[in-house]
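Thread: sanity check for a docking pose with S-adenosylmethionine

Original post by kr_44:
Hi all, I'm comparing my docking run against an independent structure prediction. Below are the sequence and the ligand SMILES. Could someone generate the full complex and paste the structure tokens? I mainly care about where the ligand ends up relative to the chain.
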Amino acid sequence: MPCECCKITNDQFGKDTAEADLKEFHRKGPADHTRLILAAVRSLGFKDASLLDVGGGIGAIYHELMKDTVTRATHVDASSAYLNAARTETERRGNAGRVEFVHADFTDVAETLAPADVVTLDRVVCCYPDYRALLKAAAGRSRRALALAYPRDNWLSRAVVKVMNLTLRIMRDPFRVFVHPVAAMDSLLNAEGLHRVSLSRLFVWEVALYQRS
Ligand SMILES: C[S@@+](CC[C@H](N)C(=O)[O-])C[C@H]1O[C@@H](n2cnc3c(N)ncnc32)[C@H](O)[C@@H]1O
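Reply from moderator J.T.:
Ran it for you. Here is the predicted complex with S-adenosylmethionine included:
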């Protein structure tokens, strides 16, 4: 984990966060934004697909999609604690051997990974300053589709994120949150040959599904 940015992310999503997220997943199932990603991917009707889950946290997306859509997955994450929790849950579900776990900044390792039918980024761009590098790398690994959840690009999200970042700064926490421009993310993905086929919204989050044309 050489890059400073990923060390910060690794520290931010530690053991307590990962254990709490896994507990919540066992209690309630996937979070609402994750459910939207699952519905979007399932709407494509893929079978026996491969998945590349970038920043997958506890792995909710492939734990669910392995029931009907996906046969193998690669999970790249900057957080070792999330990867440990995801691996434990994968083994508990009898899916060990079907998931590859990679501890890295995705932008550093993307070119070494095999392309996948579907690439997912559930609340990941908002944790990464350089959305261009992240999305370009993700698009480059997507054979057929890409789905992502990100904060809605409006004054309310920007105000909330400003307050969050100010609080982090006061607490001398180097982690930062980002609301990236949705129109620019869309143009970038279009330039990579991916076109938006659906968009769904929650109060905070937006989920977009892209397909390769
Ligand atoms: C807010 S958490 C979201 C976790 C999960 N996807 C969810 O929605 O519950 C952000 C995740 O993105 C990962 N992440 C952020 N930037 C990353 C990068 N450049 N490469 C790999 N993982 C990254 C973090 O380690 C963390 O797992």
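DSSP finds nine helices and seven strands in the chain. Hope that helps with the comparison, let us know if your pose agrees.
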